[in-house]
């Protein structure tokens, strides 16, 4: 089922107005009416799945170093909100469990795998999604297409999405060339055209471009009939779609 109205997907939470990939950012996205959230995951030294964009803590916390070299308990001692604003002091790097506890089942969660960690992430994530019983409303995406293919091979119920940054000749043909079912395309928004969207949606693929924030771009993509838009400003997209309705 493909609808005309794009799903509002909060990129790393409402990243434009709160520190990315924190519970505060996800809460804000939900309060602004998002219907999905996008987040990025890494593995700690003790193999916990945590939500962070970069491989290191340097940019988004007051800690330093590789996530993969630190235990969860050490990572939890660092502040992940202060860099964005004093009012976010006390935010920490959340575990994936904490985000799933916060986000209602009705909200789609797009888990972007940043690193396979030699295949360990795929195993941990599949185990996690089975335990949380949330396979039906989660999309696992990655720029590493072999990685998401492994996810689908391990768990046939998983929905997988292909992230890409280039202008592909025929994204639908590419997705359909996989020996497993691909659920969605996640193109960089400037690399998408109306023909790509039409062909993909007619073939049953969902199309979720990232990361569009400007009103003109949001309108443009909505006009293409995309399935959803990954945005740092979910409230802005919500207002725009409401204006179109009235
Ligand atoms: O999943 C869409 C988008 O988040 C991909 O790029 O760098 O923002 O994680 P990035
Ligand atoms: Mg991402």
Automatic annotation (TrEMBL):
Domain GP-PDE: 6-241
Pfam families: GDPD (PF03009)
Residues that span the membrane, as ranges: none
Highest rank taxon of the organism: Bacteria
InterPro entries, per the entry: GP_PDE_dom (IPR030395), PLC-like_Pdiesterase_TIM-brl (IPR017946)
Protein name (database record): Glycerophosphodiester phosphodiesterase
Organism: Paenibacillus germinis
């Amino acid at each position: 089922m493909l609808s005309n109205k794009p799903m509002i997907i909060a990129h790393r939470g409402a990243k434009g107005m709160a520190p990315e990939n924190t519970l505060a950012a996800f809460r804000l996205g939900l309060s602004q009416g998002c219907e999905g959230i996008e987040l990025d995951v890494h593995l700690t030294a003790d193999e916990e799945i945590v939500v962070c964009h970069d491989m290191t803590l340097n940019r988004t916390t007051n800690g330093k170093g590789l996530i993969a070299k630190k235990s969860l308990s050490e990572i939890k001692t660092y502040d992940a909100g202060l860099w964005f604003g004093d009012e976010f002091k006390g935010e920490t790097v959340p575990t994936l469990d904490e985000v799933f506890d916060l986000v209602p089942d009705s909200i789609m969660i797009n888990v972007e795998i940043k690193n396979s960690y030699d295949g360990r992430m795929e195993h941990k994530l599949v185990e996690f999604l089975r335990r949380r019983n949330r396979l039906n409303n989660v999309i696992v995406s990655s720029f590493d297409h072999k990685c998401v293919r492994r996810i689908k091979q391990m768990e046939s119920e998983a929905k997988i999405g292909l992230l890409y940054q280039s202008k592909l000749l025929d994204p639908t043909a590419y997705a359909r060339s996989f020996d497993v079912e691909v659920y969605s395309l996640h193109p960089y928004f400037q690399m998408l055209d109306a023909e790509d969207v039409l062909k993909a949606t007619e073939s049953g693929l969902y199309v979720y471009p990232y990361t569009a924030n400007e009103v003109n771009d949001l309108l443009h993509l909505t006009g293409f009939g995309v399935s959803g838009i990954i945005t740092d400003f979910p409230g802005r997209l919500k207002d725009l779609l409401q204006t179109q309705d009235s």
